[in-house]
Amino acid sequence: MTKDATYNYLLHLADNALILAQRNSEWCGHGPVLEQDIAITNISLDLIGQSRSLYQYAAELINEGTGAATEDTLAYLRDTRDFKNCLLVEQPNGDWAQTILRQFFFSTYQFFLYQRLQQSGDAHLAAIAEKSLKEVTYHVRWSSEWVIRLGDGTEESRNRLLNALDELWMFTGELFVPSAYESEAFKAGIGVDVSALKANWEQRVNEVFEEATISIVSTSAWMQSGGKEGAHTEHLGFILAEMQYMQRVYPGCEW
Amino acid sequence: MHTTDNISVKNIWSILSAVCDPEVPVLSVIDLGIIRDVKIIPANGEEGIEVVITPTYSGCPAMDVIRMNIRMELLQHGYKNVQITTVLSPAWTTDWMTDSGKQKLKDFGIAPPNPKQQVCNTQLFAEDEAVQCPHCQSYNTRRISEFGSTACKALFQCNDCQEPFDYFKCH
Lengths: 255, 171
Hints:
- Chain A: This is Phenylacetic acid degradation protein.
- The structure holds two protein chains of two kinds.
- Chain A is an all-alpha fold.
- Chain A has ten helices and no strands.
- In chain A, helix 5 crosses helix 7 (155-168) and helix 6 packs across helix 7 (155-168).
- Chain B has helices at 9-16, 29-32, 62-76, 99-108; strands at residues 35-43, 46-53, 82-86, 110-111, 141-145, 153-158, 164-168.
- In chain B, strands 4-7-6-5 form a four-stranded mixed sheet.
- The radius of gyration of chain B is 18 Å and the shape is elongated.
- The interface between A and B is medium-sized, with 38 and 28 residues.
């Protein structure tokens, strides 16, 4: 396996976690009730922690002892085309239902992904997955319960969840279509075959949707893609502008 | 200053028991179970110390402070050559928390973690754990939120004495 492919694979995993964390953190101080404001920002914190482990490892790999790349340069000094996160995680928060559904789709995916990544031939990556999986387990449980609460709640909450489903469904397909570096990582015994996660994911989503009295739009619906290769929706640029502003204007600033 | 022949691993462990979690100050890093190993290593021709730690949660902001506090505490006791190594696997679990740590948490008003087997699954609306109120000892309590004031805690309330309390959740 080429070093580039491993590096890209690590960045892809890290970017997914970081961008969703950044999105969720927009809720800080704006959550519907205090407990849920705290919950969503706690999830952000877990995801930032996971992305840090992955960026540190990616930096180590690309540096070869030069020290030029760090977790911070990878997070703060790359541009939109260099980010390899899937499109789902960069979608706007919308209302609470949209944030919840995005979290539920992604956490469920991440749960099955990390479960397999624990068996990675790369011991360090396996350790990161083992550590993260425990955190993600809580995210899956929390977001599943909210999907049910909204879907099987009032007419208002149900309509909002259905609108969120219309908005987000087209971004779920990309999760299970491997990019070139994911395929290479899988063949090298380091990464996970994401196409094999789809059945588990759909089963879990169906179970929760059934409880929520809603159903999957259509498994053959047209799907958006491109995020893994750096072709993003218009939203990512705005996310990075806010997230990277300080480091761009005051390079190397600390507090 | 310590010379090469008198670094004792046992002594280091006892010094580390004075380093506390900045967010839960009644717990030492040893109570928490995050010190995985202490080794004597060669450092610049002398003997140095390697302290192996593991984070509680990936994003726990206390870890940086804990790392610094370990270094400071050892420095105060004259140990200059200290290397702190972080390992992720095996992943930290609340099962590693000491019994005295659990008792200290309870006395502090935080419900200590239940043994791990009871929870940590993705089951929906899984039956809530029986968490004992640290104030009135009642098991008649309910979960208010899965996530509390720090990554490691959930928010509960006692149905008997009505007091809300933190629960150090199982992990």
